[in-house]
Amino acid sequence: MKPQEHTDVQEAADFCAWLVRKAEGEFDRLRIIPAIYTEDQWADCRDALAQRLTAEFPHARADSINEVFDSSGSQACVWHPFEGTGGFRTVVMKINLDDCRTGFWPDAVREAQAVTIHEGGHVVGAEGRGGVNSSLFEENTPDVFEVLLKSWLGQREDAEALLQMRVVKPGEASALAVSRRYGFPAVYEEAVALGERYYQRGQAGQGVSLAEMVEAADELVEDRGQTLNQWFGFADAMYALSGETRDPADILGAAVKVGHPHAKIISEASGIAPNLGFMLAHSPNPFLSRNAAFDYPGRPESSGVKPSGDQKGGPYGLGPWPSGFAVLDRDAGWQGSYDLDLNVRDYGPVAAPPPEEPHFS
Ligand SMILES: [Zn+2]
After folding, report:
1. Which helix or strand (DSSP H or E) is residue 336 part of?
2. Residue 145 is inside which H or E element, if any?
3. How far apart are CA 338 and CA 81, in angstroms?
4. What separation in Å is there between the alpha carbon of 269 and the centre of ligand 1?
């Protein structure tokens, strides 16, 4: 186990500050409060955030603020305009460094950057779409966006790490993590092909706009809606079979038998060979369609159980991050227990919207 270095936290935080500056530079009514922390410091980080939010946004709705505090996970909490924020769309972008130790990426800083970009994809995606976030775009646009920006940064091989994370559980290479929310593997090849264009632009020293990139990601997701639904159908069928088998080889075997379009990429990414000898207890095969999955006789009644666990798994091959937290400040300072020298742009106090700004709700 290689322990993380304190400088790794600095590098992850510098990247986060860079992305925040870039996003705010492109969307002039966007304000992001980034917070970086380790799980054991979440309570302290939360207190620092609470102080800051209540001081700066006294009229923000309590449920919006509570959303920030509900969980310790990495998350982008987007507040609606005019909700006590002086007309700005305000976002709290939380990066839990312990979410960034799945081991799929070449190193933990690269993974922390990936998580930061994913959360950033939620932020600029909501900005581009005016806050409307349908389920199809919700997690798939940020994933595609991640591939595009990573490619522009010259890290196109990181797409494969993301593919693996969306197929197998971190720390449990033999357990499938196919989910109804994250359909990225279904559009993996198209995302990589699109990423190649951004890679070339990055190599040629050409700049890139986050707004343009998130629009391209949205378009890809929209174009491939049917494919993504088939992917979610795979998750539905896994759930339908969960009372019968949870062995990924059996699940892949059942999927291959009826030619499910995503059995191949799941098998390749996970390295798990389908068990073609697996016999279903009922018919028709739940991998035939989403309806077949919902109607499958053996499907467990309780709907509270998800077909896959959440993505937070145990890290492997990586030591812990240095413990601490940093809430990056708008006056180029920070609060927290990391001794970081973070350079966040000073953009002054939140101002009232100009009078001609149209109000909407
Ligand atoms: Zn997400």
Report:
1. strand 334-336
2. helix 135-152
3. 32
4. 21
Cα of 139 vs centre of ligand 1, distance in Å, is 5
Asked if 111 and 311 count as a contact pair (C-beta separation under 8 A), the reply is no
Interhelix angle 135-152/108-128, rounded to 10 degrees, is 130
Question: Could you write out the DSSP letters of every residue in 214-257?
Answer: HHHHHHHHHHTHHHHHHHHHHHHHHHHTTTT---HHHHHHHHHH
Listed range (49-63, 199-213, 237-251, 324-338) with the worst mean pLDDT: 324-338
Check if the beta carbon of residue 176 is closer than 8 Å to that of residue 169: yes
How much distance in Å is there from the Cα of 141 to the middle of ligand 1?
A: 9
Q: How far is the CA of 140 from the centre of ligand 1 (A)?
A: 8
Q: How far is the CA of 185 from the centre of ligand 1 (A)?
A: 15
Encoded amino acid at 133, one letter? N
If pLDDT is split at 50, 70 and 90, which confidence band does 323 have?
Answer: confident
Q: 67 C-alpha vs ligand 1 centroid, how far in Å?
A: 15
Tell me the C-alpha distance between 328 and 343, whole Å. 9
Look at the chain and count its residues: 361
* Nearest alpha carbon to residue 35 among 76, 94, 122, 98: 94
pLDDT by residue (tens digit) across 287-307? Answer: 999 899 999 997 887 544 444
pTM comes to: 0.87
Q: How far is the CA of 244 from the centre of ligand 1 (A)?
A: 30
Q: What burial class does residue 69 get, using C-beta atoms within 10 Å of its C-beta: 0-12 exposed, 13-18 middle, 19+ buried?
A: middle
- The owner of tokens 């009078």 is 355
From the list 223, 221, 147, 146, the residue with the least C-alpha distance to 181 is 221
Q: Are 274 and 253 in contact (CB under 8 A)?
A: yes
Cβ-contact 128, 214 below 8 angstroms: yes
Separation of 175 CA from ligand 1 center, angstroms?
21
Closest CA to 238 of 258, 254, 225, 226: 254
